[in-house]
Structure formats: structure tokens, C-alpha cells
Design brief:
This protein is α/β, with parallel strands linked by helices. The chain folds into two domains: 181 residues, Rossmann fold; 151 residues, no CATH class. The chain has a six-stranded mixed beta sheet with strand order 5-4-6-7-3-8, with helices on both faces. A two-stranded antiparallel sheet has the order 1-2. Strand 1 and strand 2 form a beta hairpin. It is globular and about 65 Å long. It binds adenosine-5'-triphosphate and magnesium ion (MG). Magnesium ion binds next to helix 2. This is ATPase. InterPro entries: AAA+_ATPase, ATPase_dom, P-loop_NTPase. One of its GO terms (molecular function) is ATP binding.
Length: 342
């Protein structure tokens, strides 16, 4: 199987591990998706990278792929497509003044022209992080528009795959209530996969166990640790500042802070006390701020790759809720402790 080339910590490497997810994409390539598939997971768990690898697999299966990531740092990654549809993309781009400003609409347009012009073909639309770039109402509209591509195509297609990625907790609540999309969780990397990624980085470095305990398999945190000379303090400080976590904690009631302290020990506290209105409010906020996720049964087909263990208190993973990573939990814990000492 072709492995996508990935940029990681300033080097070019091959896509690592995630064997279950890759098999799943092959399965989707065989049968297509219905309805829209939303790949949802902790921030930095590897969604963008996974979609890039999915593009490579789908192309192996003769799909014409349109991939867009409106938030990509590099312009060449905002829109990527299979060379077979180059002329169509050119044509669409020529007809618009500033196609990059409306890249999601433009990609949908490209897909629908491909359907019309290349009849009976295989087509895949991969939309990375589109919900983060737009307002929530629009996210719902886009999901419906994507479903329309499947249900009411502009031309006959042989197979279609529509994958959208998101790390926005709110999108799951808003979009998940319609029949337009099914959600699948891509969790942080398994221990085995994460170890392979850790091995890519040069010595000297902390032991694998130490890194695993704070990153919990999250490749973005691994990269951040490496870039900060392995200073956990720096990475946590940066996280606290960028999320304004001090303000967040200060805005909570004493009771909410108490519940949060318990959730640091065991995130399932939230589930057990969900009848209390303050717990409900807190749960919403934590999900909205991408600090925790609600996770479902590990056996279901709702996972793209290997699910996390049923419970792992060391990593902050419960049966019903999980901290996105141990570092997220650690950051909150520090601010809570400081707050209590004021
Ligand atoms: N399977 C993998 N093999 C090799 N590198 C990976 C893999 N998954 C992720 N990475 C690396 O980890 C980093 C974070 O991954 P990525 O950007 O895909 O996460 P993300 O879930 O899209 O993050 P965000 O929530 O910020 O959009 C990237 O630098 C990427 O190169
Ligand atoms: Mg991403």
C-alpha cells in the first residue's frame, strides 16, 4: 500500500501505523460512504495526516480525489486533487475571482462537475477541518450539501466517498442530531504506533514511558515537546496561554471547580453526576473547549482505528468520557491548584 509522505518535526517521513484505519479506508473504497462520514477526534491526534493517507489509498483504487483544508498553513495544501481532474479544477478556478476565499464551495463545485463530466467514475471528497473555519449553522448546511452530492448527484457515479474531519466538540452535537452524517472517532495513536513515531526523533530524549504518560499517543504533543527541547513545562504553559485556561477556571463556580477536580481523577465522574444541572453545564463547556470528549463503547464500529482502552486512569480515559490527552488534564489541574491557593 502506498504510504503518504508526511512532515513531522521538520523531517519528511512516511505515514506510520494505523493499520486498522487503513483497512477501513480500503473497505470504504470498495463500497463508498453513506451518509457523510465525519472523522472526529482529539486535536492533534492525526486527522489531517490520516486524510492525506486516505487520499493516497483512494487514488490507488482509481478514485478522483478532491481534498481541501481551508486552514492549511501552506497554500498548496488548501486544495489538493488527483491529476486526472486537473483540467476541471483549472476551469473552475479561471471562472472565479478569488477561489481560495470560498474553497469549500469551490471544492464542492469541482466534485459536482467531475460527476457530470466523468460519468460512472469513482469520486472522493475529503474535507479537512471545515467546521472550524466556518460558523456552526454553515457547518450544518455544508453537511447537507455534501449529503446531496451523494443522494442527488449531478451525474452518474460508480462510487462516492465523502469524509469530513473535525475536532470541534460542538459540531458533533449540532450535526450528529441529523441523519446527514455518521460520526467515527479517530483516537490518539496506539502505544505501538506512537512508539514508532517517537523513534523517529533523535537522542537525547526522555524515555518513551515519560513521553507516553504526558502525550498519551498524541502526535502533535510529541512534536511540540520535541520543538520545546522536551520541556513539558513550556508546552503546558503555551497551552494554558493559548486557551486562556486561567480565565476559564476563574469563570467557574466553586461547585464546578470541585467537579472538575474530581474529573481529573476520573472523567467518568461527569457521567455519574450528569443529572445535576451544574455538571451538565460544565460538560458542555469542557467539550466546547476541546478538553474532554465523550467516547462510546469500544466494540462498536464507531472507531476509525484502534479505540482507547476501556479505562485508563493514568491517561485520563474513562468508559464514557476521556481527556483529549493527559497534557490537557495536567494543564487544567495546575490552574485549579493555583486557583485554590489564591
Ligand atoms: N500516522 C502518522 N504517521 C506519521 N506522522 C503522523 C501520523 N499522524 C500524525 N502525524 C504527525 O503528527 C502531527 C499532528 O498530526 P495532524 O496535523 O494530522 O493532526 P490533526 O488531528 O489534524 O490536528 P488538528 O486537530 O490540529 O487539526 C503532524 O505533524 C503529523 O505529521
Ligand atoms: Mg488537522
Amino acid at each position: 500500500m502506498k504510504r503518504a509522505r508526511i512532515r513531522f518535526a521538520g523531517r519528511e517521513i512516511e505515514f506510520i501505523n494505523r493499520e486498522v484505519a487503513l483497512k477501513y479506508i480500503e473497505e470504504l473504497a470498495e463500497r463508498g460512504t453513506y451518509p457523510v462520514y465525519v472523522v472526529y477526534g482529539p486535536e492533534g491526534c492525526g486527522k489531517t495526516t490520516f486524510l492525506k493517507q486516505a487520499k493516497a489509498i483512494l487514488e490507488d483504487y482509481s478514485y478522483h480525489v478532491v481534498y481541501t483544508n481551508p486552514l492549511a498553513h501552506e497554500e498548496k495544501e488548501i486544495l489538493m486533487y488527483t491529476p486526472s481532474i486537473h483540467d476541471i479544477v483549472e476551469e473552475v478556478f479561471k471562472s472565479l475571482l478569488d477561489p481560495y476565499s470560498r474553497i469549500v464551495d469551490v471544492s464542492i463545485k469541482i466534485a459536482s462537475i467531475v460527476m457530470r463530466k466523468l460519468r460512472k467514475s469513482r469520486i472522493a471528497i475529503l474535507m479537512d477541518d471545515i467546521f472550524q473555519a466556518i460558523e456552526l449553522d454553515k457547518a450544518e448546511i455544508y453537511t447537507k450539501t455534501l449529503l446531496n452530492l451523494i443522494e442527488y448527484p449531478s451525474g452518474d457515479y460508480e462510487k462516492i466517498v465523502v469524509l469530513v474531519s473535525s475536532s470541534e466538540g460542538v459540531s458533533r452535537e449540532r450535526i450528529g442530531r441529523h441523519r446527514w452524517a455518521d460520526f467515527y472517532i479517530l483516537w490518539n495513536m496506539s502505544r505501538e504506533g506512537f512508539r514508532k513515531l517517537y523513534e523517529v526523533l533523535p537522542d537525547p530524549k526522555p524515555s518513551f514511558e515519560d513521553v507516553w504518560r504526558i502525550a498519551g499517543g498524541n502526535p502533535d504533543i510529541l512534536e511540540k515537546l520535541y520543538r520545546n527541547n522536551w520541556s513539558v513545562e513550556n508546552v503546558i504553559d503555551g497551552f494554558i496561554r493559548s486557551r486562556k485556561l486561567e480565565h476559564f477556571i476563574a469563570s467557574l463556580s466553586e461547585k464546578e471547580r470541585g467537579i472538575l477536580m474530581e474529573a481529573i481523577e476520573d472523567p467518568d465522574t461527569i457521567f455519574k453526576r450528569l443529572r445535576e444541572s451544574e455538571v451538565q453545564q460544565l460538560e458542555k463547556k469542557l467539550i466546547e473547549m476541546n478538553l474532554i470528549m465523550d467516547v462510546w463503547e469500544r466494540e462498536s464500529r464507531g472507531w476509525i482505528d484502534i479505540p482507547p482502552p476501556e479505562k485508563d486512569t493514568e491517561l485520563g480515559i474513562g468508559k464514557y468520557y476521556a481527556w483529549q490527552t493527559p497534557l490537557h488534564r495536567e494543564a487544567i489541574k495546575r490552574i485549579l491548584m493555583q486557583h485554590n491557593n489564591i
